[in-house]
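User: For a benchmark we're assembling, each entry needs the component sequences followed by a predicted structure for the full assembly. Here are entry 17's components. Please fill in the structure.
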Amino acid sequence: MENLKSTPLEAEHIRLKAKMAPFGGWNMPIQYESIIEEHMQCRKSIALFDTCHMGEFFFTGDLEKTNIERAFSFKVGTIKVGKCRYGLILNEKGGMVDDCIIYRLGENELMMVVNAGTKDNDFNVIKSVLKGDFVFEDKSEATSKLDVQGPLSRDLLRKYFGSAVDELKYFSFVNANLMGQDVMLSRTGYTGELGFEIYMPSKICVEVWNELLKDERIKPAGLGARDLLRLEMGYPLYGSDLDEETTPLEADLSYFVHLDKDFVGKDVLMKQVENGLEKIRVGFVCDGRRAPRHGYRIFADGEDIGYVTSGGFSPSLGKGIGMGYVKTKYSSENSTLELSQDKVKIKAVVEKTPFYKDGSLRK
Amino acid sequence: MSRYYSKDHEWLEIEGNVGTIGITDYAQHQLGDITYIEMPEVGSEIKQFSIFCTIESVKAASDVYAPVSGKIKEVNEALENTPEIINKSPEGEGWIVKVEVANVSEFDSLMDKSSYENYVKGLD
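Assistant: Structure for entry 17:
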């Protein structure tokens, strides 16, 4: 087995008796006590996630002269300083190398946050389009990230950041001080709840983790809960729902693709726009508690029309939910699907995401 | 009344010729939050050490093996909408099925409580 990497919090997770498992090359906490309780903790109060495994790249240079726009499906130059934007990194075939968030730190300064398992490849892909004078560094080791997510997260963090937490809008960030160190507070997350991500020097990560957990409103939550939370919002997960063989248009992420700029893989996407898509990602809700898993086939009218990429039991809906790719003509709302593997057959209906509509995300 | 345990982590409680079957606390802990259970039909026959139902948890779907052969007399209908009862009370309210036991000599291939506890200790 490959050597798994450890976040600065590994000893804390073990002390909390977390079940650990490999994720993206890292030894990560899947659950502490109960995935469903940790999920509800995030929906009702505050959950704390170790997301130190994710990658952070820092770029300094003239955006136009360095050609950096070519590396991303979305406009970087129009992100205002203090804001961030979600989008895709593509290959020449229009397939997704990764999804990422870009922070505009300054006129000529960016931070890019990428997935753990794809980090090194992302770095090379981005670097390969760059020209001229720039500094481009992978500072993932030195940078730690904690996600503080849930309807009460703002109240908790006000104690540390004051009124900055009230002023911060969705997909905005601010430089701040925490425990005498420079940190970045970002109003982003992957749960559908009001929430923040704190980027900090790795050396204070354990201290911050333990400090936040002193408040009884917040509890640690593992990647199991995080997966259910994002699934209830219909957010795709790279590696499960998005991959190098699939384009962002097929993944129904066209909102994050700006076809009026130039970028790697654009010509393939333009052809798809012209000719139409053969398959597209949809969300579906099952007729009972049983949930499909990654790899189940999808049938309609007795024909194999696609495949499931994510599925699980939704604690909020009390039903199985999931997402997958289907032939375009079966993608309309209320299309009935049959999800199947071996003897298991589950009836489901295509529904608009988010499946969970009461999240505090924008409150 | 006597209770037996299998290596696959099911328990069997015998009262007369009726056996009640469930999964052990160790098994529910391994599975995590249980979200769905696919029950066998009442009247169907199950066979010792063969799959007789499937339990889905947040993490995965797992097969459950019959600790004894017999005919299903009753299934625990409460589990249909609240399968989490198994997490809360695996060896009580979270029982899965009751069967008419076909062959009492099958008990010989099962363990008693203390042997099972030792068996589980050896797994950790």
